[in-house]
Amino acid sequence: MCGIVGICNLNGDPVPTGLLKRMTDIIAHRGPDGEGHYTDGPIGLGHRRLAIIDLSPAGQQPMTNETGDVIITYNGEIYNFQELRVELEALGHQFYSRTDSEVIVHAYEEWGEECVHRFNGMFAFAVWDYTQRRLFLARDRYGIKPLYYYHGNGVFIFASEIKALLQHPVVEREVNPYVLLEYFTFQNVLTDDPVGEIERSSNNG
């Protein structure tokens, strides 16, 4: 299953490793086989590992490419990773594990954000591009693998579960009654701006 977390401090403040650890500890049930943390100034990535494809330490995450400038935290399974690995090896990429995680790393190196169009599987991942200073997040088309995020108060936070987001002090533990109403009505949240949608509907009614 695995669990991923991450913090991007938009004001440039460094990410405390202790905070990342609290976020990964709260979702330890998603990955009992290990944990890892990576920080680079205002960027922090965390991972809880459930080892399936490659049980060796080479599969530990967050994982980097051979030059250390592409870093990933990933949850999921890429069904066609072996075919992609053969293609990437033919293009000159070197692999040090048998994981599909490393295939994503090199696919991003080769094709950038377009790499997601080559993946057949279920996934949620974040790539920190050290050279471009860019954080790239992606989730599978049907949302099989969860990816929750919070953006506000000068920070962007993401995680596999909401309880990990709640470990960050800027995330308030409050119920949004408009979202709750929409969920009870439709068994889903269908709008990006439920407060605004409900207010507009009331005014038009």
How does CATH name the architecture of the largest domain?
Answer: 4-Layer Sandwich
β-strand number: 9
Strand content: 25-35%
Q: What summary fits the major beta sheet? A: 5 strands, antiparallel
Roughly what is the average pLDDT, rounded to an integer? 92
Give the proportion of residues in helices. 25-40%
Radius of gyration: 18 Å
State the shape: globular
Order of helices and strands: EHEEEEHHEEEEHHH
Structural class designation? alpha+beta
- N-end to C-end Cα span: 45 Å
How are the strands of the largest sheet arranged?
A: 2-3-1-9-8
Poorly predicted runs are none
- The CATH topology label of the largest domain is Glutamine Phosphoribosylpyrophosphate, subunit 1, domain 1
Number of domains: 2
Number of helices: 6
CATH class descriptor name of the largest domain: Alpha Beta
What is the CATH H-level superfamily of the largest domain?
Aminohydrolase, N-terminal nucleophile (Ntn) domain
Features:
2 domains, four-stranded antiparallel sheet, five-stranded antiparallel sheet, 27% strand, globular, Glutamine Phosphoribosylpyrophosphate, subunit 1, domain 1, 27% helix, alpha+beta, 205 residues, single chain
What report would you give on this structure?
The chain is an alpha+beta fold and 205 residues long. It folds into two domains: 3-173, Glutamine Phosphoribosylpyrophosphate, subunit 1, domain 1; 175-205, no CATH class. It has helices at 17-25, 81-90, 100-111, 162-165, 177-186, 194-204; strands at 3-9, 35-40, 43-48, 63-64, 70-78, 121-129, 134-139, 148-152, 155-159. A five-stranded antiparallel sheet has the order 2-3-1-9-8. Helix 2 (81-90) crosses helix 3 (100-111). The longest helix has 12 residues, at 100-111. The N and C termini lie far apart (45 Å). The mean pLDDT is 92.
